[in-house]
Amino acid sequence: MAETNPLEELLVDELKDLYSAENQIIKALPKMAKAAKATELKRAFERHLEETKRHVERLNQIGENLEIKLTGKKCKGMEGLIEEGKEVMEEDLDEDAIDAGLIGAAQKVEHYEIAGYGTARTHAQLLGFNKIAKLLQQTLDEEGATDKKLTALAESVINVEAVQA
């Protein structure tokens, strides 16, 4: 059996973590969209659900490229972040404040993903897996764009309404 590069083992572990995280997000986003009051926020969650499904497709492509299965690992970090998001939805708060809390929870998720995809991309580059690094960068760019959209939504609408409530 060929000896595996330790960095490659780390990359595979990171990819499995991201795969689990993305699949947990796919289950959580419809609940977040349902809990959101602001139409713009509902739409943002629905759009991100479609984008997240594409992220899983990309990860599957990477798994095929590396000839590995990305299933079998549970991302505990994402599990905790999603649990925090559920707590926001269960709070006895005004709808505008819940929307503000949902944005905060969603941004924590985005930042976790940005860190994970950035690390995986860097490791893929170091290992010379340029095609994989490019796919990871695409997702990283989309996660960053989602984070910026959530910030803009919070600053222009949601937080303003929560303050005025």
Plain-language structure description:
- With 165 residues, the chain is mostly helical.
- The protein has one domain: Ferritin, core subunit, four-helix bundle (Ferritin, Up-down Bundle).
- The protein is 85% helix and 0% strand.
- Helix 1 runs antiparallel to helix 4, helix 2 runs antiparallel to helix 5 and helix 3 runs antiparallel to helix 4.
- It starts with 5 loop residues before the first helix and ends with a helix.
- 38% of the residues are buried.
Structural key phrases:
single chain; 165 residues; mainly alpha; Ferritin; 0% strand
CATH topology (fold) name? Ferritin
What would CATH call the architecture?
Up-down Bundle
CATH superfamily heading: Ferritin, core subunit, four-helix bundle
Mean pLDDT: 93
Spans where pLDDT lies below 50 across 5 or more residues: none
Q: Report the helical percentage.
A: over 70%
Could you say which overall geometry the principal axes of the C-alpha atoms support?
elongated
CATH class: Mainly Alpha
Intertermini distance: 64 Å
Structural category is mainly alpha
Q: How many distinct helices?
A: 5
Biggest sheet overview: none
- Counted up, domains total 1
CA gyration radius, whole angstroms: 17 Å
Number of β-strand runs: 0
Order of helices and strands: HHHHH
What portion of the residues fall into strands of 2 or more residues? Answer: under 5%
